[in-house]
Amino acid sequence: MPIGDTRTGSxxxxxxxxxxxxxxxxxxxxxxSIAGPQVxxxxxxxxxxxxxxxxxxASDGQRSVRSVRTVRxxxxxxxxxxxxxxxxxxxxxxxxxxxxxxxxxGKDGKDAKEVAGxxxxxxxxxxxxxxxxxxxxxxxxxxAPVPSPTRSWQSPYQxxxxxxxxxxxxxxxxxxDSLQTSDRTKGQLEASFFTVRRTFFNxxxxxxxxxxxxxxxxxxxxTVGGYDPDGDRIIYVLTRGPKTGSVQVNRDGTFTYxxxxxxxxxxxxxxxxxxxxFHTNLLQPFRPIGSNPVRSLINQGAVTFDFDYTEGAQYxxxxxxxxxxRSADALILYFRVLNxxxxxxxxxxxxxxxxxxxxxxxxxxxxxxxxxxxxVVQHKLRTGxxxxxxxxxxxxxxxxxxDWALGDEVGADEFDFQSxxxxxxxxSFGFLSMTDEPGDNEGRNWATLDRFLVTANGRxxxxxxxxxxxxxxxxxxxxxxxxxxxxxxxRAAYGGRAVPLxxxxxxxxxxxxxxxxxxxxxxxxxxxxxxxxGEGLGVRVLSAMEIGxxxxxxxxxxxxxxxxx
Length: 565
Hints:
Mean pLDDT: 79
Shape: globular
Oligomer: single chain
């Protein structure tokens, strides 16, 4: 009678089935132990930094760029007129004495690349579209959880062991499931397998701390994010307390931080997780007793926005100013900084119903020398260093010629103020490229994001000498597969693939290369950083891909978790 026959449930038969399973597990263990870590050592961390400037110029010798987000063309005469209208430069001013020629000035007189020494340098802008946006949050096809840069460190060998045990577990469970036996017996076999794994191949826990509440104000709470692959009970040990406050770490891994009198907006503490058990792992004889200690970063009011309303200030009513502040606050919930900073913006406005431009924002690059550089805002957020002194860190220009919804209720014929403001601020944070139209990329001064630009085949169009390879000019207008961001975190969030950028034909100065691709991320999959937007509720939530890009360009960014109650 075959082993899989379930007509009898005799003890002898169950013993035989368990014996066969144990033999198979033993063989798998033996094969696993002699396989060696060669299987997966090719995986290497290839991180880096990148950015995309969306900046207006300042007279400090730094480069800035402009990125436009416009209304999508449609049949409506009012919208059609906007799309066809030659836009008026928001920043039209008299050039200064030290004005330098713009790099890649477009036919319409506007482009994304100019030296920051030029007064009124163009900015990254937003253009509307008649297509109605889908309410956020949205499901993006092929999106994956973003790998966390704050997770406790593991050695390459530890990661190999984890991958090997995961693969062994998957194949073993699949084999058990394929047996022609009862569900009860399968359950016993699975329990036996996990007992063997937990006893002889026990792995250390990991932690991934994150602050959940109190980033702006209120009680500061979060979770250590402890995880044990074997399901063992975890004990949390505070290895270094905060400097300007106190913290209570609970048994379930949640914590509450209380600021002290000297708290300036930023603090940190360190925690390690230890699992209860014998810590035996035949593949890793010197397995650590717990996770590596990880710094849990605390921010509360760490980033302050100082908006200086200048030209067109009369259009900025108190309600609109409050909406801008709320939008900035909503965006900063994603970011954690090491130093408290104040971001200074010059804010202007106009009321031009015939313009297809909704808004623009920018920040100069910190250097005009060859290299990959942060924007002023980006560098300040990442390092706490103010490189431009008393000058504004960035600027925002808004066109109130369209109908704007300032709150959470957005009509079908209104544009979402918060979505657009978050989009524009992200350009000043460095979400932009310094690439120009084909044939006009002779410079070697790039934004941090440009470090991660790749073709559809994974090749880098900017070589080691910081020169643009003209053989790849076609990708700037969407040919040969187009242009992509291929950073480690961006790829991981997009299922291992590079994230496509907006590269229309012909080239659109201020939009091309500095936005996610509208044709890829459309309908329910629209992203906040798409080039164009429509009326109705916009995207107010950063996708996994956008968070991945921001991590690639050097930020500590977290997923904003919903808070109950």
